[in-house]
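Hey, why these numbers?
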Amino acid sequence: MTVEQKVERGLFDEVMVPCYSPMEFIPVKGEGSRLWDQEGKEYIDFAGGIAVSCLGHCHPAAVKALTEQANKVWHLSNVMTNEPALRLAKKLTDLTFAEKVFFANSGAEANEAALKLARRYAADNFGPEKSEIIAFVQGFHGRTFFTVTVGGQSNYSDGFGPKPSDVTHIPYNDIEALKAHMSDKTCAVMMEPLQGEGGIVSPTDEFVQTVRELCDKHNALLIFDEVQTGNGRTGDFYAYQGLGVTPDILSTAKSLGAGFPIGAILTTTDIASHFKVGVHGSTYGGNPLACAVAEAAVNIISQPETLAGVKAREALFRAGLEKIHQKYDIFSEVRGKGLLIGAALNEKWEGRARDVLVAAGKAGLMMLVAGPNVLRFTPSLIIPEQDIAEGLARLDSAIATLV
């Protein structure tokens, strides 16, 4: 008879590949926007699993959808289809510009599919020489080798040997640089409609409009990576809907599954037709469990009152962060939209984002950073107002320990 090994934080260092450096506490239970660790300590969750837990933890609708589907069918493969996948795809097309959906398991997989589709579309229509992909400095599109190369952060892609070629990076919001470089050899421009990992950087209206116009001029596809900005995160169901610019391909994940792994690309019938049978696939893509949970999440997120509530909560965060700034002189600006918020540290606090993160954890607040100088907040879209107030109070007390 074997004795079950006690699960402690030290076990991570013993058995896990060391590409993460997790916090010292281990959450074991969640409800709404609160979590409890092994010792029973309570935390307010302003991180949302990095913009994933859009309905908080253990939302009754998501739990119901998962448990009901778990008693029906778990997996079928794409040799056949399933009801939850079809219902979810129909909802996503009804809510967006798209006519066709491809399901994957994550944002990286969705972006990989989007890039492959763009390359195939260009090759089929214009020939193999039209293959350049333009992306933006400090962009982030996933950790597969193709997506991490397209992402504009070399520290994530260097050191793995020769990179996929014909990828160009332009500074975000630099219209003249894009105009100067883009040509008829460009097959696609891939961008986040609000940069997340790169520091919570919003595009200017002129920049987004110009990107769309240049794509039309050069017969290039516009790919919006909405993995982090999608599914209500900015106060629109997808961020493009608040920008007045429609992409040709949109990738989505994170909040789509409210914590259950799922990703997808959305596109038009014409573009989708270039993914013929056998050209691309995913063993788990369109999994009935994932699609059932995502359908329940989309039903809630897409309600006008949910989206309006995101914008109201943004105002509460901004007001609270301004009070903290007045007290500690800590922020140079608060950036972002909806509940994808970045508080940039000023020169006095430069490089100390992780210090704040660790102090916040000790004070009972889970939050994020976006680089060494930006505090990032991506809580549940329906986080109760009292939890916002309490979380900001804990952030205040955490910063007080660092002054």
Remarks:
- The chain has 14 helices and 15 strands.
- The two ends are 53 Å apart (CA to CA).
